[in-house]
Amino acid sequence: MNERPGAKSSLGRTADELKRILQQGQPLCSVCLFAHAALLRYVESLFYERVNDVGTRAELRKSGGFCRFHAQAISNHADALGSAIILEDLIKQVVRGIEKGKFVAETSSNPLLRLFDDRRNDVYTPVCVICLKEKELEELAVHTLCQALVNVDFKERFERSSGLCIPHFRLAARHHRESPGWTIVVAAEEKALRDLARRLDELAKSYDYRSTKDLEPDAVRSWREALNITSSWLPDDSGFGAGSSVGSKSEND
Ligand SMILES: [Zn+2]
Ligand SMILES: [Zn+2]
Fold first, then answer.
1. Which of 120, 216, 245, 246 registers the highest number of CB atoms within 10 A of its CB?
2. How many structural domains are present in the chain?
3. From the CA of 130, how far away is ligand 1's center (Å)?
């Protein structure tokens, strides 16, 4: 499946995008970067194109809104009109709930009756639609990556990368241990984690007053890379924040 230069890719859209991300050579998890860039496009379409779509509005009402983390992302996205329409809808939903008595004081002391009380059903536990989308995108990216590793070009790029963040490595381990690319994922992950641990050690040792060694830039930035690798965190310039490069189509093309 190795590709000749200029040959039309046989990988598919998601794998092609993952390959482009790997080629950019950022010292961050490629699944994190893929999911983040795709989420940017999702939020864009949610606020610009689908804001008045009946199905989308119903989906948003059912979700009850956005989690705190993604509220920050929406704030950074700064679409006042789209936000006003969507958030007004969510707020009115709660007002309707109040009107219908969904928030009245308990009338029964029986916890089982309280559990099955219809009036309470939409009072609790909203699930953020962006969180749900993010999960779907991460699963798609992990699945695609494990499959695409049979492609020699893709494999070589992945082997030169920083591997996966640990949450995405665990996700891949849960669902794709039987995939043809799994041994490649594990080998690349071990190599990347050992290298990162070595650089973190160098960084920590540099704070010793007896240390005279100049730190390499990859050791200086290692603690930020480690935040991505352990927590799927991405720096501001890789996502919803101002100056985003990953979400920019032109950067990826
Ligand atoms: Zn990741
Ligand atoms: Zn969320």
1. 246
2. 1
3. 16
pLDDT of 53 > 60? The answer is: yes
Kind plus residue range of the DSSP H or E element containing 96: helix 80-99
DSSP secondary structure of 160-228? TS----HHHHHHHHHHHTTSTTHHHHHHHHHHHHHHHHHHHHHHHHHTSTT--PPPPHHHHTHHHHHHH
Q: Which ligand is nearest to the CA of 70?
A: 2
Q: Is residue 209 part of a domain?
A: yes
Q: How far is the CA of 63 from the centre of ligand 2 (A)?
A: 10
Residue 226 lies inside a defined structural domain of this protein: yes
Does any domain span residue 227?
A: yes
Measure 105 CA to ligand 1 centroid, in angstroms.
44
Ligand nearest to C-alpha 162: 1
Residue 248 lies in a domain: no
Encoding tokens for residue 189?
């992950």
CA of 3 relative to ligand 1 center, distance in Å: 26
d(CA 147, CA 182): 9
- Model confidence, pTM: 0.81
